[in-house]
């Protein structure tokens, strides 16, 4: 049973747990920091608006991605989207599939969002000129485009260290809660250790403003192959607290 169901939020809010596929999903409250920033502003009056639970969205997107694997689906509830095959007949897995499914989920659930959103801050990641970067998906409180509620970065596989650093820099520099959604073809203890190491080293880099940050990043991982009760893992880092301990706790229970 996941810690979402067995004991409620741990010391870091959402604590990492595998989602059991033989149990109906339960809708839990997101971490307090995310609950606060994702509830819509009072000036919107009595207009009914949804409340975004990043863990629920990530879990449902992850299930759709797993069902796209023709050799190891969870059930028959597969989306119309499929992974294409390369010339060697291996499935090509990228972050593009999760971008489409996240966008569809936000659309179907009544959220206002944009894709490839220019950042509010500028960055000098190449060359000598400060430029705006791009966030994969942004969710808004309202149609006021200054009301950014959640920035989403999408990853697949095991990218180079620099990709972790620059995208974590963006998520923290933007001063808006974030979601890191990561698709893995498969995973073993070495995979989790490598991912934890890259995230840890990136957050310790002097270009990544962990000391000044007070918001949260929710990390979610989808595994396309392997045990069907181990397809989804998530946890939250609240940068208003001790993120180093939280990161260790988040990855600690992984298989």
Give an overview in words:
Strand 4, helix 6 and strand 5 form a beta-alpha-beta unit. It is globular and about 45 Å long. Mean pLDDT is 81; it is low at 1-17 and 19-42. The chain has 255 residues and is of the alpha/beta class. 37% of the residues are buried. It has one domain. It has 7 helices and 6 strands; from the N terminus they run H-H-H-H-E-E-E-H-E-H-E-E-H. Helix 3 (54-67) packs across helix 4 (95-108) and helix 6 (189-204) packs antiparallel against helix 7 (243-251). The protein has a 6-stranded mixed beta sheet with strand order 1-2-3-4-5-6, sandwiched between helices.
Which keywords apply here?
about 260 residues, six-stranded mixed sheet, about 20% strand, single chain, disordered N terminus, 7 helices, 6 strands, alpha/beta
